[in-house]
């Protein structure tokens, strides 16, 4: 329930496998951009699992678009339409792109929404006298 600040480094962990979203300086198989994969065990990984939240304002808000920039290589988490044939037919390739574009905006579509804490509400709406 802790708010995520724009500019904050985070790790994105797949709940089903416990692996982190990971990238490194290898070419992705379909587009030739930077490969993005899953790495680690039970949420544990390494520094190549860190992504910076790029958004406007102070916090990443529920309905706003957001970008994720890889903390070590500076690429943006992207999807451009390339699809695998086998073994995961129709699955789109997610990769890292050096330049920001429309292909690297993300928006939350499902998940668990937690009400902001009272401290967060006070910080967000507090005005000095």
TrEMBL record:
Top-level lineage group: Eukaryota
Q: Which InterPro entries match?
A: MIR_dom_sf, MIR_motif
Q: Which Gene3D superfamilies match?
A: 2.80.10.50
Keyword tags: Repeat, Signal
Pfam families the UniProt entry points to: MIR
Residue intervals of the MIR domain? 1-56, 57-111
Q: What is this protein called?
A: Stromal cell-derived factor 2
